[in-house]
Specification:
371 residues, 43% strand, 5-stranded mixed beta sheet, mainly beta
């Protein structure tokens, strides 16, 4: 009962319909008489073939105001690009029965039996409800609508991925921001975007998204992109997925065997190499010797203290460091201990590599001469 606020409407039965002037320049348009009957012919009989469809003869009649009009055959068109622009140089759509922002038809249709796509293939509904008619209002569109970040080490940030927001409507829209919802919403962030407050019709902007897993396993959330046109709020959703994995490292050789050593005499140093075998940085924290005979083994030169190791897969990075250990037996027979190397990813997870240390204490040996 009220104006549905379509983009552009027109009457399909004008006395001189624009369709009858296709290809006529603006200068010649005043001479164009549309579908008027040829000179000397009645508008009721003997019309050329172009005026008949399925044996239906199109003739002149009068409208409610007693104005002569030509009857048109065919429904109202969604678009008909046969009109000239104000400059007279380009064709513009004659009619477009898509609804505009602010139309009273938005979000008020029943969902019973409603198709899930509109006439143009857009997903329905776009917002809270279905729009009346064949065309669902689409003001803005995001692409892609799904981002998969793959595997990322816990507490580390992925490379950014981009989502493009495009104003596909006919009026400027106001970008109001992004929010993250869902079980793992805190694991996804938008560090930057090029979207200004106002986005003109037909223009686009970029939204950057990154993944920083705070726990292990498959993580997912949704990014909601919000904008307004007039008083209407519109949202688009982007699905986000990623997998959090733990840090990983190795310490070799393991075990570290010193063999026989005379009691009280220090061995030559042996070296343990710590390597980052994960996909993210590894921060060295400490090297601690523990166990029954811990005092017989000593950490010497330590090239790992305070070092952040790059993933081994990173070309040109430093992925390993070394720690020296010496053995000085304090008693006879077998001596053993454990070297624990602690490292981790940020502050969320610490992992350890343990190296078994072993050696044997023996008596001093030599030749004694008795006079």
């Amino acid at each position: 009962g009220i104006d549905p606020a379509v983009v552009r409407q027109y009457a399909n039965g004008a006395r001189i319909p624009p369709e009858g002037c296709i290809g006529v320049s603006p200068v010649e348009q005043p001479k164009c008489h549309g579908y008027n009957a040829p000179v000397g012919r009645s508008e009721f009989t003997g019309l050329p073939v172009v005026f008949s469809l399925n044996q239906t003869v199109v003739a002149a009649t009068v409208d409610e105001g007693n104005n002569w009009i030509n009857l048109g055959y065919g429904p109202l068109s969604l678009s008909n690009p046969t009109g000239y622009s104000a400059a007279g140089t380009a064709l513009v759509p004659l009619g477009n029965y898509s609804i505009k922002a602010g139309s009273p038809t938005i979000d008020v249709a029943s969902s019973d039996g409603a198709p899930n796509h509109d006439f143009f293939g857009n997903i329905r509904p776009q917002d809270g409800g279905f729009d009346i008619g064949a065309v669902e209002l689409v003001v803005a569109r995001v692409s892609p609508n799904n981002l998969d970040f793959g595997t990322v080490q816990i507490s580390e940030s992925s490379s950014t991925m981009s989502v493009t927001l495009t104003n596909v409507g006919t009026e400027p829209l106001t970008f109001t921001g992004v929010t993250f919802i869902g079980t793992n919403a805190a694991d996804f962030q938008s560090p930057a975007n090029t979207c200004t407050t106002s986005l003109a019709a037909g223009s686009s902007c970029i939204i950057a998204v990154r993944f920083t897993p705070g726990s292990l396993g498959s993580l997912s959330a949704s990014m909601i992109v919000s904008d307004t046109t007039g008083a209407a709020l519109h949202t688009q959703s982007v699905s986000l997925n990623g997998v959090g994995v733990p840090p990983s490292g190795s310490a070799l050789p393991n075990p570290l065997a010193f063999g026989n050593m005379q009691i009280g005499i220090a061995s030559a140093a042996q070296t343990v190499t710590l390597t980052n075998t994960g996909i993210g940085p590894l921060t060295f924290n400490s090297a601690v010797i523990s166990g029954t005979n811990a005092s017989d083994f000593v950490v010497g030169t330590n090239n790992c203290t305070g070092k952040v190791l790059d993933p081994a897969i990173l070309v040109g990075g430093t992925s390993s460091c070394t720690i020296d250990v010496t053995f000085t037996p304090s008693a006879l027979l077998d001596r053993s201990a454990t070297l624990t190397l602690s490292d981790g990813a940020g502050t969320l997870m610490t992992i350890s590599q343990t190296v078994i240390l072993s050696g044997t204490g023996v008596e001093p040996s030599g030749t004694v001469t008795v006079p």
